[in-house]
Amino acid sequence: MISWRKHYKKTLIAIGLLLSTSASFYGQDGDPKNGEKLFKANCSACHALDKQVIGPPLKGVVERVKTEGGVDRDWLHKWIKDNKALRASGDKYANEIFEKYNKTEMLQFPNLTEKDIDDILAFTTNPPAPEPEKTAETTPAEGTANAPADKTTTNIVIISLLAIAGLLVWILVKLRQLVTLGQSEDLAGLNATRVRSFSEIYQKYHYIGKGLLGILAILAAYGVWNWIMWIGVYKGYKPEQPIYFSHKIHAGEQKIDCQLCHSSAKYGKVSEIPSMNVCMNCHRTISEYNGKYLEPGKDKAFYDGEIQKIYAATGWDADKQQYTGKTQPVEWTRIHNMPDFVYFNHSQHVVAGEQAIINSFNKKNPNNKIDVVCKACHGKIDTMNVVQMANDFTMGWCIECHRTTEVDMNNGYNKEYFKNLHDKLKKQYPQDGGKITVDAIGGLECGKCHY
Question: What does UniProt give as the signal peptide span (predicted)?
Fold first, then answer.
């Protein structure tokens, strides 16, 4: 009996050790919740749990590498920290993976500690279930509070219906009186005294008529003039595009710099529409929308469908992670379009005039300040789901800006280049304290914008 008990205790100890080793191997000794944060920060650019992105899906990776390559958790630690060194050492399985995924080299993560890697492996083995969203529930107190309001609403409806009924009765009474009057001799006498034609009215009140006609002519002329002056002005214009693109999500929620996509605005005359390859810089690894913001009337499936349009346009096969060569042109609808006789250079405003324009705009709009120069003309683009023309972009609008925007003379280039001109303008405009606006240095010359 004693011998059996000893063997029983040894067996339990052995089973316990086996289970603890197994749990350690499968990454369960880590913290899945912390692993989820680390995964999103370090791995999500190239990997997903349940599908291939640039790299393979990582759900159950611990068990998979054991089955495929016969390697353990220590091997995964080495691979994650420095897979290049592991391949250079001649590790067979490491080189097989490298070849299998088109020799795409994985980044090294020497900054991750052993515990960090254990947490990530725990997340890939047993990802925590998403927390259910809290829904607003009406408490008994709230229901009781709403009861008086509902009763008041009912009373208002009843009173309104009674008032309408009373009005209808009054109208019926008046109609009856009119019918009675029409059948009397008094009505015949009244009709005899009335004017029977428009000519009689005009002869009687021709001075008033001529005055009214004159006023109508002036209003008509003003309407025509106003209509002519607004030809070609499309403030508020926001057409639908073939692929839905929300600046609120990209520039607002994700804080993507305007010039990352519109790079030519800084160094060129025209701010070009970004090519689809610019979109693919990010969307090669972002195949679905997982953001928290949803525009009213749109859901996750809508945004996912728009991403698929990008893939169709560029010929990207998300499953094989390669381009097919079959592309589809995207016919974007242009929003901002200057007339052919107007010259406008983006780089001149974005680079040379950047700080001056921002300072001038914020001075004129203290309650609606901007942080980037683009917003001075294009409005707060980071709040727009659908881009619209935010300003008039008329000649008068541009001239007003040139008359009120001060040139930044603290800029080293301007300070040196306009040195003599600056002294001359101080004498010419002493009432402005030597402040130089764009119009003072040729900002109103016709040839600057028309050629």
Answer: 1-25
Token pair for 89: 């050492």
Count of the separate structural domains present in the chain: 4
| Domain containing residue 212 | 198-231
HEC sequence for the chain: CHHHHHHHHHHHHHHHHHHHHHHHHCCCCCCHHHHHHHHHHHCCCCCCCCCCCCCCCCCCHHHHHHHHHCCCHHHHHHHHHHHHHHHHCCCHHHHHHHHHCCCCCCCCCCCCCHHHHHHHHHHHHCCCCCCCCCCCCCCHHHHHHHHHHHHHHHHHHHHHHHHHHHHHHHHHHHHHHHHHHHCCHHHHHHHHCCCCCHHHHHHHCHHHHHHHHHHHHHHHHHHHHHHHHCCCCCCCCCCCCCCCCCHHHHHHHCCCCHHHHCCHHHHCCCCCCCCHHHHHHHHCCCCCCCCCCCCCCCCHHHHHHHHHHHHHHHCEECCCCEECCCCCCCCCCCCCCCCCCCCCCHHHHHHHCHHHHHHHHHHHCCCCCCCCCHHHHHCCHHHCCCCCCCCCCCHHHHHHHHHHCECCCCCHHHHHHCHHHHHHHHHHCHHHCCCCEHHHHCCCCHHHHCC
Please state, in angstroms and as integers, the Cα–Cα distance from residue 149 to each residue in 141, 142, 143, following that order: 13, 11, 10
Q: How big is the chain, counted in residues?
A: 451
Same domain, 349 and 436: yes
The token pair that represents 203 in the structure block: 């002869």
Where does a domain end: 64, 94, 125?
A: 125
Looking at the whole model, is its pTM more than 0.85?
no
Taking only the tens place, the pLDDT of each residue in 239-288 is 999 999 999 999 999 999 998 999 888 888 888 889 999 999 999 889 99
Based on the fold, state whether residues 297 and 438 are members of the same structural domain.
Answer: no
Least confident window among 113-127, 242-256, 321-335, 419-433: 419-433
- Domain final residue pick, 231, 251, 286: 231
Q: How is residue 186 written in tokens? A: 């008094």
pLDDT tens per residue across span 87-128: 888 888 888 888 887 777 788 888 888 888 888 888 888 888
**CA dihedral (63, 69, 70, 74) positive or negative:** negative
